[in-house]
Amino acid sequence: MKIKYVFLWLVLVVFGFTNTPEQAITGLLNNIKENKYEKASEYIAVESEISTLEYEMNEIQKIFFDGYAKNLEYEILEETKVGNDYKFKVKIINMDLMKVMDKLFEEVVKETTKSGKEFENEDFDKTLSEIINSERVPKSRRTTDFTVVKTRNTYKVNLNIENLKAVFIGSDDLLKDLPNQ
């Protein structure tokens, strides 16, 4: 009887965690879309340039990342097997950080000029949140190549800085100052 349970456990361990290369990409991006960064990190290969998406965030960062999650759309355009790896060309649509900041600056100036008083932190957070959660939030479209690698018994995304730029920044104006590793 114990042999059957040991065999069942081995089958679950060996085959239970296996996924497809496409499931690695969709698992990563769907969990980002659901604002589940700890779960999204499970789809990232340990040897990646960026090995986790888990960070302590202040209130402003939470507003931004909630906005990124809410506004993320993606489409897998192409899958190519390269040796033992898989390359996925993915179109990413998400809020454009630079345009959001321009809109925020415009609103802060308008309100400060109109009221004649200093813009408080609470007003800033509220205005930023309204812009990000608006149906008309500025968005950008980018294409990025994700690499998926086979690990022991599952596929993982070899996440790099270019992938993060496409998903979380969306503005060429800001990209020029980030490293291109």
Radius of gyration: 20 Å
Structural category: alpha+beta
**Beta content:** 15-25%
* Separate helix tally: 8
| Outline | elongated
Report the strand count. 4
Largest sheet strand order: 1-2-3-4
Fraction of helical residues: 40-55%
* Low-confidence runs: 5-17, 177-181
SSE pattern: HHHHEEHHEEHH
Average predicted local confidence, pLDDT:
82
Largest sheet descriptor: 4 strands, antiparallel
Distance between the termini: 54 Å
Which structural traits does this protein have?
single chain, 181 residues, alpha+beta, 4-stranded antiparallel sheet, 4 strands, elongated
Explain this structure.
A hairpin with a 4-residue loop joins strand 3 (139-150) and strand 4 (155-157). The protein has 181 residues and is an alpha+beta fold. The model is unreliable at 5-17 and 177-181 (pLDDT under 50). It has a four-stranded antiparallel sheet. Helix content is 49%, strand content 20%. It has helices spanning 2-15, 21-33, 37-41, 59-71, 97-115, 121-133, 161-168, 172-175, and strands at 73-82, 85-95, 139-150, 155-157.
Which secondary structure elements does this structure contain, and how are they paired or packed?
Blueprint: H1 2-15, H2 21-33, H3 37-41, H4 59-71, E1 73-82, E2 85-95, H5 97-115, H6 121-133, E3 139-150, E4 155-157, H7 161-168, H8 172-175
Brief write-up:
Helix content is 49%, strand content 20%. It is α+β, with helices and mostly antiparallel strands and 181 residues long. It has a four-stranded antiparallel beta sheet with strand order 1-2-3-4.
